[in-house]
């Protein structure tokens, strides 16, 4: 239970940080 939700949340966070470019390119 909740595994799909957790995976979606992680993916959303990942996409959010990539779009906002909060971290430098070297960080990735």
Question: Could you walk me through the main structural features you see in this protein, from its secondary elements to its overall organization?
Answer:
This protein has one helix and no strands. It has one helix spanning 3-20. It is mostly helical and 28 residues long. 64% of the residues lie in helices and 0% in strands. The mean pLDDT is 80. The relative contact order is 0.13. It is rod-shaped, with a radius of gyration of 11 Å. The N and C termini lie far apart (31 Å).
Task: Summarize it.
With 28 residues, the protein is mainly α. The protein is 64% helix and 0% strand.
Mean pLDDT equals 80
The end-to-end span amounts to 31 Å
Query: What percentage of the residues does DSSP assign to strands (E)?
Result: under 5%
Number of strand elements: 0
The helix/strand class is mainly alpha
* Major sheet size, sense and barrel closure: none
H/E order of the elements?
H
The total count of helices amounts to 1
């Amino acid at each position: 239970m909740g595994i799909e939700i957790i995976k979606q949340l992680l993916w959303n966070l990942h996409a959010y940080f990539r779009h906002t470019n909060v971290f430098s390119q070297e960080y990735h």
